[in-house]
Amino acid sequence: MGKLRDSVDVRALRFAAVFPVLLASAFVVCAFLLRADVPDPMAVRWSDAGPAGFAPFSAFVAFGGLIIVLVGWLVLGQAVPLGRPAVMRRLMMGTGLSVSLFVTTVLAAVLVGQAGIADVREARVDMSVLALGSGAALPLGVIMFFVFKADERWSVDDERALQEALDRELDPDLAADSVRLWVHARSSVFVMLGIASLFPAALIAIAVPWLGALLVVLAVLAAAFLFARIIVDRSGLRVFVAGFVPVMEVPASAISSAAPADVRAADYGGWGYRHHGGTTAMLVSSGPAVVVNRADGRKVAVSGGSTASAEKVAAVLSRVAARARGEKRPPLP
Question: For a disulfide at 89, which of 25, 79, 128, 228, Cβ 3.0-4.6 Å?
Fold first, then answer.
């Protein structure tokens, strides 16, 4: 129940659920008040020559009430989720009210237009009822748009943000012990990859389209794996290839030391995610990197982007590793 309250506007949900039902109930009651004055079956479809489709009175009333309920639930329900923008929720609430009233107006116009006639072939749609009801539905929807308060409520995300703010306030060094970094290969590598794949794919696609498309997909995947997202915090080091595929996770307690270095990718097996000897590497290019010595004797190497960012990552890793081992933290640079 708590999760439901965090994701939906309970007041809007109550209105969206109850209003269409009450509107449909009012239509059914009014229809049965006119039951003795309308023919059975009733006309429900017209052509240039007059009524062309007929339905029993009970079916018309039941189906009409069902349409009112379903349309109201469908449109008004769009204003219930709290995750949507406030303007959109207000717009859907006003639209839902107008649409529900308009559908009811159309059904009422069909019903009233057949009251008091002796022959169903004389049936018509009462234009006065249709005009008055439609004229009322639009301004009522506009009023609902301005009246409905779709203010954002306190949610689980707000609670999490508050907790993070409190943690930063109580521990000023927390922000300094966190780094988020994107690294990628040089632009010339992507240009070379495009020339080596897209141009041949265009030629191959003339003869074998699916093979050309496959070559393009492989080129895109290769380019994506030359991107990496690096996250360093007090839990340790995490590396995600292409930004979302986890390939490395080194707990802070498992780190013995970390240092910036200028590396050659060939010394670690090449670009991308590699296992070379006792080292696991995620290098998108040669140049600045961070080499991490694990407590078990293995090594981890990750690209650091620039020299400054590599030094920052190494310094943060050293601090969080010392904190995890309970040692005196190195001073902030």
Answer: 79
